[in-house]
Amino acid sequence: METNGSVMSLKDEEKTRLSSVSNETSTRYGSIADSLPTDEPSTAEITVLSPRRSYITVAVLCYVNLINYMDRYTIAGVLLSIQKFFDITDSTSGLLQTVFICSFIILAPIFGYLGDRYNRKFIMIGGLSVWVVMTLSSSFVTESYFWLLVLLRALVGTGEASYSTIAPTIIGDLFSGAKRTVMISAFYIFIPVGSGLGYIIGSSVANATGDWRWALRLNPILGSLGLLLLAVLCPNPPRGASDGHGGSTIEHTSYLEDVKYLLKNKSFVWSSLGVTAMAFLTGALAFWTPIFLSRAQVAQGIQPPCNTEPCDTSDSYIFGVVTVVTGILGVSLGSTISRKLRDRVPNADPLICAVGMLSSAPCFFAAIVLASTSIPATYVFIGIGETLLSLNWAVLADILLYVVVPTRRATAEALQIMVCHLLGDAGSPYLLGSISDALRTYQPDSHTWSFRSLEYSFLLCPFVGVLGGLFFLMTALYITKDRKNAELLTAGVCDPVDPPTRFSAMAGSTDC
């Protein structure tokens, strides 16, 4: 009995010691996290550089993010002209987006690995330099070399892969607490804003010059400015610095160990599947909506079909404006709701994402069905659906930052990007184009059937949206535990390679 009592006493003492370590080193990991017991407020905000330098860094990263997404959707803004110029079908047109995303998928894990181990600033500069050259080169392709345009668009993915995997982790290392949520929201708000401006500026430049290729020449100029600002103004902060450890608490591990850790993180896995469904939906809608609305108006007799270049791009312009406005509204609203609920609902973030996905699905369904009878009603439901979908952008980024330890964030970003694009928007534009082409063979070709075939292929999107909402509901079941486990790992309480075994042996707990 004495021996048993002694063993229990030692365990109790060890638990007390671990609790003490947790209290002293709690990092308040993530802006919406329930902190471990601490004497300080859970919303403490820590900056590792001067506030002015940190804000300038975020501003530069936001600018480059804006240019990246402008370029990505400039092609969609002038797609009708591209189809006429190269005389290509819907499925072939979808290849332009698919090959870009495929290169993105292949390179993202590589940049994620490098971003967790080497100077992130230099990696981004190298990738963006390739992006500028490839984007400019793609604007000089002639009508007999469509394959070259496809190849160059694939190489454009190099720059975006380097930037998208690394930039959010730098922001995560500059800020913590509520400020991190605000800064992440500011960064991700430029996804819909940049996408919308891609339609607007692309279509406007094409109309002004009479040549769609000039739309591709503006972005490299703006990108060169971003490259200069990145080189001069952006630092490479220590990993985990905003969490109070400067990356020193957790030793670097092998890539396979990093992947093993992430696959055991259920919140990361389920949220990545949710992001994948969201990417499928947004990728298809973003690429095909302008041309879908144009065909709807031709079918209704509102506007004539495009027989010569330049084609009417008014739908791209209007859709771009809707995307910008709803993106700003949705991201701001999602971030605000998240901050309001953080103290009362520990799993608020994935629930917000689930509500956004599930409620946007019927809106997009209504927009698709109403396109044949009322274009204004279609735009209204597109606007509501995009607002609901945009609730997720900043919240999703925050989830990843607080359920993954600092030294594995770039790898986590890269894996999430790889999965969501591989199963999401890499294939959705091509898939919908292929379905549309297949359906068009069942009836004689006409403007009405051209519209209907694309409409029927679009109906796949709302169902994928519902599936994404279910994935986020699954994330909500695990988010609280995984967040606290990441805090313990960052504090050095748990073994970073195989956390459950060591921590269970020491403290008799299944956490971490």
UniProtKB/TrEMBL annotation:
Which cellular component appears as one GO term in the record? membrane
**Which stretches are tagged as biased composition: Polar residues?**
18-29
Q: Where is this region: Disordered?
A: 1-39
Q: Where is the Major facilitator superfamily (MFS) profile domain?
A: 57-480
Where's it found, cell-wise? Answer: Membrane
Q: Does the keyword Transport apply?
A: yes
Q: Which UniProt keywords are given for this protein, alphabetically ordered?
A: Membrane, Transmembrane, Transmembrane helix, Transport
Question: From what superkingdom does this record's organism come?
Answer: Eukaryota
Q: Which GO terms describe its molecular function?
A: transmembrane transporter activity
Membrane topology, as annotated, equals: Multi-pass membrane protein
The family database entries (Pfam families) matched by this protein are listed as:
MFS_1
Recorded hits in InterPro entries, A to Z, give: MFS, MFS_dom, MFS_spinster-like, MFS_trans_sf
Its principal location? membrane
Q: Where are the transmembrane segments?
A: 55-75, 95-115, 122-140, 182-202, 268-288, 317-338, 350-371, 377-405, 456-479
Instruction: Identify its protein family.
Output: Belongs to the major facilitator superfamily. Spinster (TC 2.A.1.49) family.
| UniProt protein name | SPNS lysolipid transporter 3, sphingosine-1-phosphate (putative)
Q: Which organism is it from?
A: Oncorhynchus mykiss
